[in-house]
Every structure is written in structure tokens, then in C-alpha cells.
Predict the 3D structure of the following.
Amino acid sequence: MKTQYLVIPVSDDERKRLDYVCTRLGITLEKFFDNALREGEMEALSNDAFKPGGSFWDNGETFKKDAE
């Protein structure tokens, strides 16, 4: 499998903040972005599932009834 790299330009201050956050979380910068990408994928999947005709769509019924 070929390794691919994502390059994100950041300022020195932004890099320091990212390093600080990762240190506090006890993870690497790579793990931080890996998690962020996975969360983005999950958000895209859930948005797709909730749209009309998606996996969680109940024959045109809205979720308002569930909330009442």
C-alpha cells in the first residue's frame, strides 16, 4: 500500500497550539487528524442517512412526532 500525505499549511502559532492540544490529549498530531477525518466521514454518513430517502427516513414522516 502506498503512503499518501496530507499537507496543511499552518502558522507557527497554530502549530504550537496543535502540539499543545495533542500533548494534553496524549496523542500524536497524525492521530489527531486521523480522528478528525474519521469524524468528518461519520458526519457525512449521518447527514446522508437523515436526508429524505436515507436510512433513517421513515416514509416521509418527520422526527417531530418523536419529540412530542
Remarks:
- The chain is about 60% helix and 0% strand.
